[in-house]
Amino acid sequence: MDCIEQAVELLAAEPVCGYYAGQQPAVEPTALAALALAAKSRTEESTIACQWLASVQAEDGSLAVRKDADTPRWPTALAVLAWTAQHARESASSDPRYQQNIDQAITWSLSLYGEALEPSGVHGHDVTLQGWPWVAGTYSWIEPTALHVAALKAAGRNEHPRTREAVRLLIDRQLATGGCNYGNTTVLGQRLRPHVQPTGTALLALAGESDHRGRIQRSLGYLAGALHLETTTTSLCWGLMGLAAHEFLPAESERWLTAASGRLDRRRESPYQRALLILASLGRQCPLVALPREAQQHGT
Fold first, then answer.
1. DSSP readout, 140-199?
2. Euclidean distance between the first and final Cα of the chain, in Å?
3. Nearest one of 265, 203, 267 to 233, comparing CA atoms
4. Strand ranges for the chain from DSSP E
5. What is the pLDDT of residue 7?
6. Is the whole-model pTM more than 0.70?
7. Residue 289 half-sphere exposure, CB side, CA atoms within 13 Å?
8. Residue 42, SS3?
9. Is 105 exposed, middle or buried (0-12, 13-18, 19+ CB in 10 A)?
C-alpha cells in the first residue's frame, strides 16, 4: 500500500515522537515507532527510538509515560517489546545493552501486581487472579495485562507463573458471548459490552493459547464482525493485530487500513497512529503478532 510506505517515511523522520507532531516525546508512541521501523528494516531509525527508550528507563527498570513523569509506568511493557524486536534484528556483534534493559524492565514488571479482590458475587469473573494495573495499587485491567504478557512472552518468560496466571485472567475475562470489556465481565448481574481495542489487545497476548470453554474463538468472531470501514484508527489497528495473531484476518483489512490512513487529520499529524497503521498492515509479520517459538500452542 502506497499510504503505508509514505507512513514509514514520515515516521522515520521522527522516530522519537509524541502522540501528535510537535508534542513532547512519549514512551508508548516511540516504542510503537521502534517496532514499526524495525519491522520495515529501518534499523538506523528504530535504533534511535530504542536508544531514547533506554535513556529514560528508571533505575528500577521501569519507564513512565514521559521522560519527566513519575507515573504511570505501564508503557514499560511496550519498551520491552521494542527492545526485543530490535535485538532480534541486530547482529550478534551489536551493542548488547538492550538485554540488560530488557532484564531490568522484566524484573520491575514481575514485581507489579494488580489488586486481587475477595470473591463477593458482585463480579462475574475470578477476581482473585492477578495481572497488571494501569496504575500501581489498583485493579488488574485487560490492556496493561495483555501488554505485559506479550512482553514476557517476547522476552522468553512464557512459562513464568505470572505469565500463566495472567493468561488465565485474560481468558476468564472474555465475555461469554465474545469480546471483552476493559476489565470486567458482569457487575451486579449486568453484562458489560465488548469493545474492540481491549479485545484486540487481549487476543494478541493470547496467541498460541487454547481454552476448553471456547472463549477465544468467540472473541475472534466478535472482533471480525465488529470491525468495518469506519472503525476508528486506533481500535481498527489493535483489532486487526489481534486477529492476525490467530490467522483470522478479514479479506477487507487492507481496504480498511487505506481508508483509515486517508482519515488521519493532516492538520495534527499523529506518529502514534501512523506507527499503528504500519504495524497492522504487516499481518502475521507484525512483531507484536509473531511470538517466540516456545510460546506457541500452549494449552490452558
1. --HHHHHHHHHHHHHTT-TTSHHHHHHHHHHHHTS-TTS-B-SS-SEETTEEPPPBHHHH
2. 38
3. 265
4. 186-187, 190-191, 209-210, 298-299
5. 93
6. yes
7. 26
8. coil
9. buried
